Amino acid sequence: MKPIKDFDCVQMKWDIQQKLLEEERLLGPEEARRRRDERVRNNPILGRFLQRMETEERRKASELLGQMAGRS
User: Fold this and answer.
1) By CB neighbour count within 10 A (0-12 exposed, 13-18 middle, 19+ buried), where does 57 fall?
2) How far from 36 is each of 20, 40, 62, CA to CA, in Å?
3) Which of 21, 23, 29, 61 is the most buried if burial means most Cβ atoms within 10 Å?
């Protein structure tokens, strides 16, 4: 006999996907994307992570541009 689960991560994933699909259906793809982006940026964990990644990408791009300018 299978034990009863207190938490079902597959069901949670399904539920979240359904909410996101419904949000996109109601708002349209652009507005739904904008709201998801806003939620990520305002999240105390994900927002900081995203900010670090964007900072690192800008640093790499500046470094690459500096290298390319030095070759001219």
Assistant:
1) exposed
2) 9, 6, 28
3) 23
Q: How far is CA 3 from CA 6, 13, 67, in A?
A: 9, 21, 60
What is the model's pLDDT at position 72?
62
b/e per residue 3-25 (b: at least 16 CB within 10 A): eeeeeeeeeeeeeeeeeeeeebe
Band of pLDDT at residue 5, cut at 50, 70 and 90: confident
Averaged pLDDT score across all residues of the chain: 93
Q: 30: Cβ–Cβ under 8 A, 6 or more apart, which residues? A: none
Q: How far apart are CA 48 and CA 61, in angstroms?
A: 20
